Structures are given as C-alpha cells and as structure tokens.
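[job 4471] stage=fold_predict status=RUNNING
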Amino acid sequence: MSMGFLIDETAPVVWRGLMVMSAIEKLLRQVDWGQLDYLVIDMPPGTGDVQLSVSQNIPVAGAVIISTPQDVALLDARKGAEMFRKVHVPVLGLVQNMSVFQCPKCKHETHIFGADGVRDLAKTLGLDVLGDIPLHVNIRETCDSGQPVVISQPQSDAAKAYLKIAMEIVRRLQVPPA
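[job 4471] inference complete, writing structure tokens
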C-alpha cells in the first residue's frame, strides 16, 4: 500500500499535522492488511510531521535509519536517530544505502558517495550497522518493473544484502509478551 494510491500520480503531498495523521490513520485502520507478522512504514528523511505523528500515535517497535554515506545525508540520518530516541522509539541500527558501485564491465568498485560515513555515524551514536546496500542497476530495474530483486533474483548478491538486513532487524525486534 502506498500514499501514491490515494492521490493523483503527479500531485505533491504537501500535508502537515492533522492531514498527515488523518492519512496515516486511514492507511492503518481502513486498509485490510490481513494477518501481519510485521508492518514496515517507509518514511521520508527528516524529523517533520510524518515522523512525529507516527512515533507519537502508533506503537512503534523500532526504527531503522537508512542513509547514503555522504556528509549531507548523514546530517539528516543523525537527526532522525536522535528524534526517535527522544520520543522513546528504539533505534535498531543503521543501513548504508548505495554503499559501493561495481562496474559491470571491469568489476572495479567505486565508493561514489563515500566509504564509511554510516559506519562512523553508527559509532558516534553507539549503534550497529545492519548492512550495506550496493548501488546496482539491477536493484533499480527490478524495482521499476514491480519485481524487486529479492523476488526476481533471490540468489543475487543484491537480494542477499536485503535479506541479511531484514534478518538483523527481525533479530533485534523485541518479542511482545504472550
């Protein structure tokens, strides 16, 4: 389910406060999710209305901060982690996105956005890095086609990176009392 299904394809979402919470409430309460093991909410970077509304009005088991390793992105990642801590949402760890690009022809690896920015931030915050997602054309192509790499190419290194991170997240989630 996506907010994109609720608005025109080209319309920007310029909602604040009550409008944000109303949309979130509709997604959570009016969508037949069926029986779920987990509900993952992908939020935009930052510490705005969306993040605050979700963290203050919905029981959240944990947050995962995802960032590229470049300095400007890490500023938002740090603020996000600190905001979740402030509202008592456990930060399960960080994920380094677009960590490395491997040339499909010669296999040379290049750290386009930097090499260890997320690792350095994790150390500063006392958190773990849950994994790295490479910058790979197959990830983009499979997502654009509606068949994410974990479905369409489950044995690929890219799919294995996602699955490793998912397993780390599940391992860190607290089991609710029976």
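[job 4471] summary: The chain has seven helices and four strands.
[job 4471] exit 0
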